[in-house]
Write a structure and sequence with these properties.
- This protein has three helices and no strands.
- The chain is rod-shaped and about 100 Å long.
- It is mostly helical.
- It folds into two domains: 30 residues, no CATH class; 69 residues.
């Protein structure tokens, strides 16, 4: 039988009808954070929905622990965002102070030159 599932050569027929394609990513790939930094599922949904033979009273504590861990991650992400905002603010303040010091230095040099010029003209 050919690779297209229809008994002939060429691409598989459009519209599905074939077996679902398995997700061949490794566990390491599944655990990588998504581009938005929120992270993705560590297993395909079909596996997440499976209880693996656990009785309901065994699965519920695991679900509660996962919920608690997700809550902790949310708190950590919020704290991280707050710290990043604080760092940006500190950087902005440092830039303003650096510019003010530079401007004051230039003003002092200008005044000293003017003073020297006046003193020179009075001699």
């Amino acid at each position: 039988m050919a690779a297209n599932g229809a008994g002939g050569a060429g691409p598989p027929p459009a519209g599905g009808g074939g077996l679902p394609v398995p997700d061949l990513r490794t566990i390491e790939e599944l655990c990588q954070p998504s581009l938005d930094g929120r992270g993705g599922p560590i297993a395909p949904i079909s596996i997440q929905a499976t209880t693996f033979g656990l009785k309901n009273d065994q699965a519920v504590p695991i679900q509660k622990e996962l919920r608690a861990l997700r809550d902790r991650v949310d708190v950590a992400e919020a704290e991280s965002a707050s710290l990043r905002a604080t760092i940006r603010t500190i950087g902005a303040v440092e830039t303003v102070l650096r510019n003010r010091i530079r401007d004051e230095r230039h003003a002092r040099i200008k005044i000293e030159r003017q003073l020297a010029s006046v003193q020179e003209s009075h001699r």
